[in-house]
Amino acid sequence: MKVLLLSPAMFGREGGIERLMRLYLKALGEICEQEAGTVESLCLSDGRGGTGPGLLTAYSGKSLRQHRGFAHNKLRFALAVLRRARGSDLIVCGHINQLIVARVARLLNRKLRYCVVAHGIEVWRPYGLLERWALRGADRIFCVSEFTRGQMLRFDKRLTPSRLKVVPNALDPQLAGKDSGAGHNPPAAQRRPTILSVGRLTRSDSYKGFDTLIEAMPAVLGEYTEARLRIVGTGDDLPRLRALAAECGVAHAVHFLSRVGDEALRAEYAECSVFALPSRSEGFGLVYLEALTQGKPCIGAKAGAALEVIGETGGLCVGYGNVAELTAAIVELQRHPPEAVALRDRAQEFSFERFHERLAEALPR
């Protein structure tokens, strides 16, 4: 099997989609190596050199024939896809925006099959005419959650349900294999209440619930005067959130950390007592897995796919925007934290090995 993997971005920046596409590159490479096949990777946003050899090696194997970046040049990217598709058996599109070129490629190679990865909010909407044409022709749609699968079937009732397969995200083994030393959750009396949240602080992502966390802090401080909220991320909504913290009288207890590297982020997970992202529209939520792997309980909202990731053993989910419920959940997990081993067991349900198995089962043959 000759696989052509299309990605919006992979190595040029950090983000949930970028991390997931690296895992697709790794898993598809391993699958093709087992079947004496090959993988070619074309990435719209990476630089023309693709990436440094060291980083690429961590996510590829003998089956990888090339990884090319196109520095955001959509025309060059599309032309390269059409050329390479003539000798391919399967295209895996990393985003719905790349689906139309895959559909056109099949006009040039009638034996070609193609799939698309549905991450979340980008497919929770009505589709244009060309998008419907391309979606309905896809051999598989890999949905990162049951919630996303249901949303796609809701917005296009003519999609074939059997072609929509749930292939949940996984924690990157490059990160999962590094432990910051959080062996267990110590007794409450020995823990400084520290709530951690991670995400983009942009106006377009205001649904992530950082403002709700800040609004909950006065009541949390009423229970724990030493409590602190640490927010990792940056964006154009930061001034509003800072002003909200001052307005609520909790500026001294809310720390904005901007963007941090992987090692510093693992340290933040290891040192927190609770991770919270009460978002309305998470397609999956890799940050929950990152926290669970460090043995830390999570708080999400009863919206999107957070419930699927956190489950019954990974923490608590509250009504979106409900400050009282959010406060109660923080206090409950602070007083009665789940055992770290149970939290890590939950994370293992989304290991790379399980991701590899699910993808191998879902691929069209």
TrEMBL record:
Gene3D superfamilies: Glycogen Phosphorylase B. SUPFAM superfamilies: UDP-Glycosyltransferase/glycogen phosphorylase. GO terms for molecular function: glycosyltransferase activity. Residues 72-174 form the Glycosyltransferase subfamily 4-like N-terminal domain. It comes from the Bacteria. Residues 189-349 form the Glycosyl transferase family domain. Pfam families: Glyco_transf_4, Glycos_transf_1. This is Glycosyltransferase subfamily 4-like N-terminal domain-containing protein.
